[in-house]
Design a protein that fits this description.
Layout (H helix, E strand, L loop, with lengths): L4 E6 L8 H9 L8 E5 L2 H9 L4 E4 L1
Helix pairs in contact: 1-2
């Protein structure tokens, strides 16, 4: 992929989390724990990543 992507891995469960946090996980394309996706580095994606950073492992 392009140079401006971020690898994001879901490390914690979404069970019992806030609805907005679950929506951010889904918006990033994550479904299962330990799933890794590459997302384009945009302000919208950065905002979602920052909101749920406690549930993610982030590699730039």
């Amino acid at each position: 992929m392009a140079d401006n992507t971020i690898k994001v891995t879901l490390t914690k469960s979404t069970i019992g989390r806030l609805r907005n946090h679950k929506a951010c996980v889904a918006g990033l394309g994550l479904r299962k724990i330990h799933q890794t996706v590459e997302v384009i580095d945009t302000p919208a994606n950065r905002g979602m990543i920052n909101k749920i950073a406690y549930m993610l492992d982030i590699k730039e």
